[in-house]
Amino acid sequence: MGHRAHPYRSVLYIPGSKPRALEKAKTMAVDAIIFDLEDAVAAEEKPNARKLLAETLARGGYGPRAQLVRINGFDTEWGNDDLDAIAAIGPQAILVPKVNKATDIEKLADRLDAYSETANTTIWAMMETPMGILNAMHIAEAPRMAGFIMGTNDLAKELGSRTRGAMLTSLQTCLLAARAHGIVCVDGVYNAFRDEEGLRAECEEGRDYGFDGKTVIHPAQVAIANEVFAPSDDEIDLARRQIAAYEEAVAEGQAVAVVDGKIVENLHVDTARATLAKARAIAELEAAEAA
Ligand SMILES: CC(C)(COP(=O)(O)OP(=O)(O)OC[C@H]1O[C@@H](n2cnc3c(N)ncnc32)[C@H](O)[C@@H]1OP(=O)(O)O)[C@@H](O)C(=O)NCCC(=O)NCCSC(=O)C[C@H](O)C(=O)O
Ligand SMILES: [Mg+2]
Question: Among the CATH numbers 3.20.20.70, 3.90.550.10, 3.40.50.1220, 3.20.20.60, which is that of 10-229?
Fold first, then answer.
């Protein structure tokens, strides 16, 4: 499954230092996992976490779940060692924190070209600095780029913003850049991980903005993200009726059909087909996870 075809409704951060959480994730119904060596791991734990994670990923067992490894930045003392250890096991994707400009990605892509194990490794960018947001368009088109993860905690810190509304321009700038270049774009985390109502509201908002899914930090958040970012039964039913009505209209020489009192043109049919394709991809992923 290509990176745009794979569902990213729930993208779970797991601290690379926690063996129990790493093991638990092998049976969780998550679409993707971020194995974290950056902020979820304390400075004194970083070398052990790097080793544990490299060994864990080399053993495998995560099935069809997409796997991203968030390394430390190259401006820290850990970034280069992280890359060496993780590149050696041929990861699916490397997630770079605090990306500021396209050259950050270009340099990493050049380095990945030099490892024999990383021919198919994609790069994802944490979008969480003002400079990164302003350069989103160029970052999205850098080599190997497959997706953006919004880092709303760092962004709030950098902007001095106190509400999600104050970050809207940043969120939408990244969405625009991601859509312009056909890469994935996943919303930031909801920190109050025991507040289900608040999480659901923020997931619904992110879905309506156009995000592919939500990053989550605790297993209890996964089911809500999966539910909100999946096409609902009503949406699937509407998509089927739109396609059928449009095909009938076309057969009669018309360019427009009407369903539930609303017009359906070719572009609405594209959206309807995308809805059905997404529902199919989710069903396939869930079947593969259960197998
Ligand atoms: C938030 C937590 C610290 C809570 O931990 P804890 O109190 O231990 O939770 P529970 O006791 O409720 O855990 C129940 C069981 O679930 C497992 N568990 C917990 N979290 C995870 C997880 N993320 N992945 C897999 N499994 C998990 C526990 O092991 C328990 O299992 P068991 O013992 O078998 O019952 C904790 O959830 C946590 O550390 N979460 C991750 C935090 C994190 O990754 N933070 C960094 C990412 S956020 C960020 O950096 C965003 C971005 O950069 C930005 O700027 O916004
Ligand atoms: Mg961050």
Answer: 3.20.20.60
